Structures are given as structure tokens and as C-alpha cells.
Amino acid sequence: MPTNPDLLSEQVVEFIQKYSSDRIFEPTYSLKKNAKHDEWRQSWLNELGIVSDESRSLYTMRKLQEEVQKQFGERNVIKEKPISNVMHPNSTSHAFDLFIPSERTAIEICLSAIKNEFEKDILKAMLDADTATLYIITRDYVTGKNETVYGVSYLNMPGPQNFINLAKIYKLHIIPVALCPI
Questions:
Q1: N or C, which terminus of the chain has less Cβ within 10 Å?
Q2: 138, 177 in Cβ contact below 8 A?
Q3: Is residue 109 within 8 Å of 61, Cβ to Cβ?
Q4: N-to-C CA span, the chain
Q5: Distance of CA 160 to the CA centre of its chain
Q6: Per-residue pLDDT for the chain (182 aa), expressed as one digit of tens each?
Q7: Which of 138, 135, 137, 139 is nearest to 172 (CA)?
Q8: What are the beta bridge partners of residue 107?
Q9: Which pairs from 111-116 meet CB under 8 Å and 24+ separation?
Q10: pTM of the predicted structure, to 2 decimals
Q11: Which residues pair with 82 in a beta bridge?
Q12: Residue by residue, what is the 3-state secondary structure of 53-88?
């Protein structure tokens, strides 16, 4: 994955991937689709003691943010950085999961339905005057009785790719990344 390991953003993404693969998720295969997806590790679920998907995702996100800041420093990687919108400079209603000011890079981590999140994340980055690059780190997950697998493969489909290409007009570089690559 790393094209320039000297970039802090790539080090942060690799750290998130390794932490997630080692502690939070394990690769599983959909028999119907013969595709990999990421299942919550039972040891992580036991540590959380939380049953709802929303609470599980929120706790996991907070833990990932804390661990990244411990590893790289709070000044180097900001968590929950509000977008700085030129039109509404005092707006704090939307924030990035992580932000690296030295590289003007936002990182969004999607632990649930990517179809519900990615357009909103791209729009936030397009509106943010500080962001030049957006990493979208997404978990591969299975949904429905047909066991449809979503994740990075979804972001490579024509519809989402059109949205990603549109963002280039606004000088926004978007990098989709698997949370737990094989």
C-alpha cells in the first residue's frame, strides 16, 4: 500500500490497518460470493461488552483515534477536526475522524455501511478549505440474504468512481483503502 512511506498519512493508515487486523477484525469469506469480509473478533466484542452496532462502532472509532494519537502525537494527528468552511467559518457540525495538518490530509474510517457514508465524507472534504487529500478507510462487510460484500470494492464501482472523479475538479485527491487488507 505505501507509495511514500515518508508521508505521515501513509504511516497513520498502515497503523490503523495493522491495529484493526491484529485486534478488532478477522478476515472471513462469504461462501456465496467467494469474497473476503471483515468480521468483529470475538475477543474485541468481549472487551467491549456492547451489543448494538452503533455503540460498537463508536467505541471502536474512539479507541482507534486514541491509539493513533498515542503513536503519532496529538499535534501531528488531530481527532474530530471540524471542517473549516469558507462559507460558514464557525460551523462545527461536521468533523473528520482524523486530520494531519502538515499534509492537509483528512482520514475517514467507515466501520459500518460505506454506502451511507462515503458521499458525505467526500462532500465534507470538498467543503473544507484545509483538506487536499482524503483517505476513506472502509471495512469490507456482508449485507443481505444474497451476502453482498461492500467496502473498497464498492468504491471502485462506476457510480462511486464518478463521485470520486468529480472531487478532482475541486483539487481533492481521494484514496480509498481497505481497513483490513489481506
A1: C
A2: yes
A3: yes
A4: 11
A5: 15
A6: 445 657 899 999 999 999 999 999 998 876 666 777 888 899 999 988 877 888 888 899 999 999 999 999 999 999 999 887 655 555 556 889 999 999 999 999 998 877 778 888 988 998 888 999 999 999 887 677 766 667 787 788 888 888 899 888 888 999 999 998 87
A7: 135
A8: 98, 135
A9: 111/56, 111/57, 111/60, 111/61, 111/139, 111/179, 112/53, 112/57, 112/139, 112/141, 113/141, 113/143, 113/150, 114/138, 114/139, 114/150, 114/151, 114/154, 114/155, 115/150, 115/154
A10: 0.88
A11: 95
A12: HHHHHHHHHHHHHHHHHHHHCCCCCEEEEECCECCC
Pairing assessment for the beta strands 95-100 and 78-82 based on DSSP bridges: antiparallel
Please list, in sequence order, all residues whose beta carbon lies within 8 angstroms of the beta carbon of residue 30, skipping any fewer than 6 positions away. 36, 37, 142, 147, 149
Q: H helices then E strands: how many in the chain?
A: 6, 9
**Distance separating alpha carbons of residues 73 and 147, to the nearest angstrom:** 40
